[in-house]
Amino acid sequence: MLDVAECGENGDQRYFMTSIQSTVVIRQIRSQGLSFQLWPAASSLVSLLDSRPSALLLPATSQIRILELGSGTGLVGIAAAAILGASVTLTDLPHVLPNLRFNAESNAAAVAARGGSLDVRQLRWGEDEDAAALVDGEAPFDVVVASDVVYYEHLIDPLLRTLRVFVTGEAAFVMAHLRRWKKRDSVFFRKARKLFDVAVVHTDPPLLGKRVGVATYRFTAKRAPKT
Questions:
Q1: Taking a C-beta distance cutoff of 8 angstroms, is the pair 191, 160 a contact?
Q2: How far apart are CA 96 and CA 90, in angstroms?
Q3: Per-residue b or e along 164-189, where b marks 16 or more CB atoms closer than 10 Å to that residue's CB
Q4: At 183, is the pLDDT very low, low, confident or very high (cuts 50, 70, 90)?
Q5: Taking a C-beta distance cutoff of 8 angstroms, is the pair 176, 216 a contact?
Q6: Exposure pattern of 114-144 as b/e (b: 16+ CB <10 Å)?
Q7: Nearest partner of 92 among 58, 67, 55, judged by Cα
Q8: More confident residue, 13 or 73
Q9: Fewer beta carbons within 10 Å, N or C terminal of the chain?
Q10: Membrane spanning segments where (predicted)?
Q11: 3-state class of 110 per DSSP?
């Protein structure tokens, strides 16, 4: 079971991952905005990685290559690198990268001890130039992960455009999501289901004071119909 404790004056979070008996510490800077804070879906996805990674149907390769979208503080990607011994690329908007890089560097030793690695890169959703820079000369990513990324309606189409670049072939997109706005969520999933096969792989109990809990989804590219 994932053990979470608050430490430091900024509300930094310490996550002890039982499966590997190791800890990651994540710095928040709440005063700088949403991307600098920790959110329920990230903790939920890390807990699932720690307790039951088989639920995510991850590929059985020697070192999984993972791309995290909208990394924010980097919790999910850093934890995945440590738990799975994966090569993880953390991405976000330019102004978010300094804190993201700080957290990656702060946890680099714990990740390396498990055979994992971290890279921090810029990725603005819908910007083909940013996506191309991650694809150029690199092996394809095995998995794309994200948590709480369906937040602003004007970013739904750019997010889906970026997903179409990386979620191809056998690659999957694993997304932890807390439904907050019925209309906005409906728009996203309606559009997403036109492009991907979408399955729910895990659902948490309702959060305190809410009707629903975090759900984790797995998206894969639609197969061409057999002729």
A1: yes
A2: 11
A3: ebbbeeebbbbbbbbbeeeeeeeebb
A4: confident
A5: yes
A6: bebbbebeebebeeeebbeebeeeeeebbbb
A7: 67
A8: 73
A9: C
A10: none
A11: helix
**β strands within 162-214, DSSP E:** 172-177, 196-203
What pLDDT, on the 0 to 100 scale, is given for residue 3?
A: 63
Give mean pLDDT, residues 197-224: 90
pLDDT digits (tens, 9 = 90+) for 1-41: 556 666 665 678 899 999 999 999 999 998 899 899 999 99
Residue 173 CA to residue 154 CA, distance in Å, equals 20
- Residues 51, 92 contacting (CB under 8 angstroms): no
**Mean pLDDT along residues 130-140:** 88
Output 58 or 196, whichever has higher pLDDT: 196
CB 23 within 8 A of CB 110: yes
Round to whole Å and give the CA distance between 109 and 89: 16
- Evaluate whether 45 touches 78 at the Cβ level (below 8 Å): no
- Of 80, 48, 52, the C-alpha closest to 64 is 80
From residue 139, give the alpha-carbon distance in Å to each of 40, 79, 100, 130, 166: 31, 22, 23, 16, 11
What is the residue type of 199? A
Q: 173: pLDDT confidence band, cut at 50, 70 and 90?
A: very high
Q: Please give the Cα distance from 97 to 120 (Å, whole number).
A: 7
In whole angstroms, how far apart are CA 218 and each of 15, 109, 132, 136?
24, 30, 24, 25
94-121 pLDDT, tens digit each: 999 999 999 999 999 999 999 999 999 9
Strands 215-221, 196-203: pairing kind: antiparallel
